[in-house]
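Case study 2.
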Amino acid sequence: MAQFRYRALDENGLSVEGELGAESVGIAREELQHRGWQVIECSQLSPRAELGKSQSGSVGRPAGTPAFAESGFHSETLGRMSSADAAVLAGQMSNVASAGLPLSAGLRALSCEVPAARVRRWLLAISDRLERGQSLTSVAREADGAWPRYFMAMLETGQRTGKLPEMLNECVQHLRTSADVRRQLFVGLAYPATLIMAAWLLLSFLMGWVVPQFKVIFLGFGTELPGITMALISVSDVMHYLGFWFLPAVVIVGWISWLACGALGIERQRDAFVSQIPLLGEARRSGALAEFCRLLSLLVGYRVTLPEAVRLAAGSLNDVDLRTACYDLALKLDGGQSLPAAAKETGRFPGELAHLFRWADQGDDFSEGLRNASEVLAGQSRIHANTLAVICEPAVTVIVGMGVGFTVIALFMPLIKLLNDLS
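Prediction:
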């Protein structure tokens, strides 16, 4: 992902300068326009400039931004907002907006009643910024990276459409549903994960302590050992060298590699690769498409233009590959292409959605079709996740049984051979 230097005017007409990571200059301009800014200049940084930027650690800041905004919402005091916290915050903001109260005063009053300390700190921080003259959209942008993307997209959509309470209520429902799905997946995979760790500890004990003692005994026999026993001894030598910490180290390295993809700017390639993994990738991609279709349905229902609706819906996606594809889709729509043709050319949308996109000019029917598609895709995501959990448990059990059986047979084969030789 390349870095681009931009200069633009925000919604208040103030000059804004900074840097942005994107796949291309067109995507970078789309992202800035998605924020409601008028792009004056956007150019790619040279590799040397990007290197100097990363070494200095400096970050561009909008011209004229108050000093208190430099710290942003990324401080350790506030922390990163979880989906559960975002659902509580969205519910509180919806209550204030529905009552017609000033948002800053209402959030400050509600902060005294919220039991969660983190949400209470967020309410006070948002209230402070609103009282200092920032718009809710600029506050959300300042929290980029600390808030869930879907929550930020719903805030911006509510501001654009004037339906903030409705969008926030929708956000609460979505975040709670997503949390339930994640909880079910975690519960389903917790037992296989525990079984894998227990099996690894057992295997480490056998290979690191039991088999080496048998190896000394077998070598004292002075007889040729069976091939299966020699294979077990070779595995034991490797396991003795690696130690029981090998599996935890692999998990940690995998997690660090996942995070490093973001630092190296290859998040899109990472997410595209993950989406190809059976069941796991399918569950992740179906869930992301469900979010996209649900928000796009709301925007189309509120008569937002199709290119702008696609951009706003794309902002809710955590899947970088799909989000970039949606921005490409919006660019093609701006260029005059029809939605089905643009989706086909993009090549990131399943055939069912491409067929549904033919109804793009049907208004309410298209909105209803998108909502139905969202429910179907969400159901597919849950099915894939549950199937993964169901398959993992017996698969791990069979693998553990085969490993233990292989060890027992390999240890007893020399004894049987020795008895035959003696007889």
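The chain has 17 helices and three strands.
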